[in-house]
Amino acid sequence: MTEKPQVPAARNVLRILTLLASTDTPISARRITHELNLPRSTTYHLLRELEDSGYVVHLDHPSTYGLGLAAYQMSQAYTTQQPLVRMAAKSLEEIAAMAGGSTHLSRLAGTEVLYLHEARAPGAVSLVTVKGVRLPALRTASGRAMLAHLPESELRAIFATSENRPLYKDLQEQLEQVRERGWSTEIEEVARGQESIAVAVLDHLQRPAAAVAVTFPLSNDDAKKQQLVGALTETAEILKQKFFDKR
Questions:
Q1: Is 28:4 a contact under the CB 8 Å cutoff?
Q2: Taking the model in full, what pTM does it have?
Q3: Which of 47, 66, 92, 149 could be 208's S-S partner, Cβ–Cβ 3.0 to 4.6 Å?
Q4: Are residues 103 and 207 in the same domain?
Q5: Which residues are in the HTH iclR-type domain (predicted)?
């Protein structure tokens, strides 16, 4: 039997990308070196190559690394078949029809929300929050729903050097309310004449793995809004049980 050729550089590149994909915030080269047991020089060499090709971005103050645009573009091709998207699709279609608007599945990507899936009711307005779009997490209901479930120390680290830091300080009390009631909302912050409700999908560690949200025309119908909150909450719990609790 022919022995497989050894390609350590390629293997280590994949290990670095896997590590970055498994963390919620950018991490230092020192941590990468330690967790992957790599020589320091090898780590920096591979990170430079990944940065040059767009798969990794280097952030200053502090010096950390995260996934780059090329990595996210590659991941978008997978999201059409991603199990979480498939599990959520039918429920999101039903909630969109119930609201007469659009529903979304998204995940955190550093200080941003990355939209993975959209379902739109017939006649609903077209929104910017389509699949593949990224928006500042603090300005969206989905982002706030997920951020509310992160530890305070992690939130401070995420926004320590971000232009969103002032907004984060203003929204700290609101994030606490989200933790208590279990859902988030935003009104005309993303689209004029539209409001959104979002619920976080928690994984087996009770961390925010994703969020389900609905966006609909401004309404004073509180009973309808509570119905939508209930539907999103039920969908989030089903996704947690089916996708994460078995892991």
A1: no
A2: 0.67
A3: 149
A4: yes
A5: 7-69
